[in-house]
Amino acid sequence: MQQIQLTGVEEQVYVAVTALEARGQVPYPEVIAEEAGLAEEELDVPLSSLAEKNLLHREDSPMAGLDFGPRWCAQQPA
Predict the structure, then answer these.
(1) 26 with 63: CB under 8 angstroms?
(2) DSSP one-letter string for 20-45
């Protein structure tokens, strides 16, 4: 199995998303930033990069009228 190389920031963001999910919290960008110790503006590149590597995927708000922005979820292993 091939191991995916992550930058330090990508790893911080991925660990933050998986920790939030494990606690039952919704991984919205502002919450991910807080968990990772980053500014929300710093998330664009690592979130996109992790999505390209199929480690995260973006989901839009499932409830009409309650849009808190996109959430980023860890991909389930195949």
Answers:
(1) no
(2) HHHTT----HHHHHHHHTS-GGGGHH
Chain segment 9-33, per-residue pLDDT in tens: 999 999 999 999 999 998 989 999 9
Cβ atoms within 10 Å, residue 39: 9
Report the relative pairing of strands 56-59 and 71-74 from DSSP bridges. antiparallel
Residue 59: in which H helix or E strand, if any?
Answer: strand 56-59
Q: Token pair 């708000």 is at which residue?
A: 61
pTM of the model: 0.81
Nearest to 8 by CA among 40, 34, 41, 38: 38
Of residues 3 and 78, which shows the higher confidence score? 3
